[in-house]
Design a protein that fits this description.
single chain, about 70 residues, alpha+beta, Alpha-Beta Plaits, 4 strands
Length: about 70
Amino acid sequence: MYTFKVQDMTCGGCASSVRKAVSQVSGVSSVTADPQTKDVVVEASPEVTREAVVAAIQDAGYNEITVVETAR
């Protein structure tokens, strides 16, 4: 599981865009995105790297990303 803070995710539409982008990463099983707390929580298989998730978030147009927690 990965937890990220996405500071420039400010609304429900932003959260939806982030969820959609991250869910398209092969191996991701679930994504939650909360624009109020700025948290994005990703459940994924072990081969999914945090770099792949960050790239997906950036491809969706969000760049203020901090890795908060990584747990396997």
